[in-house]
Amino acid sequence: MIYQSNLFEVQQGIVRLTLNRPDKRNILMAAMHGEIRAALRAKADQSVRVLVLTGAERVFCYGQDLLEQTVTPKTDALVDHFTQALTVGWARIKQVLYASVANTLAHTFDLECDLLRELGSTHDCRESVAAFIEPHPQQFSKD
User: Fold this and answer.
1) Is 104 helix (H, G, I), strand (E, B) or coil?
2) Which of 9, 51, 56, 81 is least surrounded by Cβ atoms within 10 Å, i.e. has the fewest?
3) In which element (H, E) is residue 79 found?
């Protein structure tokens, strides 16, 4: 696979995948998800001992790029899209036992993993995503 959004290298049994959008604090976009899945498939190679997942420069990842709309309009389809990306994507990472996060500033990743660990089902995850994405009424008026 040709990596356009992430940096991918293999040296001496170590796969290193670097999220490479430092100008946007390495927020994830749709193209990056496919590249991450491809890197996770490297576990099939017997010569691979470890996968290092890191972010370019000082930040690991600030989460999903919510301005990139791969599904329009912002309705249930968008909520379903992000729910699937979270549940399938992170479940796959958990399956790869040798996956590691290499960065001391990985607070966002830690928070997402904690959230997903606490969510008992896809339904719970969907409800959380919907609460985050869907517009909220103004709580305070300008008067």
Assistant:
1) coil
2) 9
3) helix 76-95
